[in-house]
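Might you be able to consider the sequence and fold that I enclose below?
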Amino acid sequence: MTSSDDGGYVHDPSTFDDDGETSDDADWVETPAHPETADREFDWRGWTLVAVIVFAFIIAPGIILLWPPATDYLFALIVLPLIPAVLLAVTAVWATTRP
């Protein structure tokens, strides 16, 4: 059976070198990209993350502190802190990933 008849992957031992790697596998290892060539500027995503950090660590605790004491204990001490924590987590993942 030839490779054109199977319609899929065919193992060809001649494409591998002595180390068991193909030429495509070793290319990024031999000539890696320098980290400074990556697009990692502190742009609007970074400033958005800073704003959410300020909200989560300064504004939200102040709101929780000033919340009326007649409020339910579960809501005031568990649910209110959970909102900035989830917002911070989602924003941090969003800000550090690149499309």
About this structure: The mean pLDDT is 77. The helical segments are 3-6, 23-30, 44-66, 73-96. The radius of gyration is 26 Å.
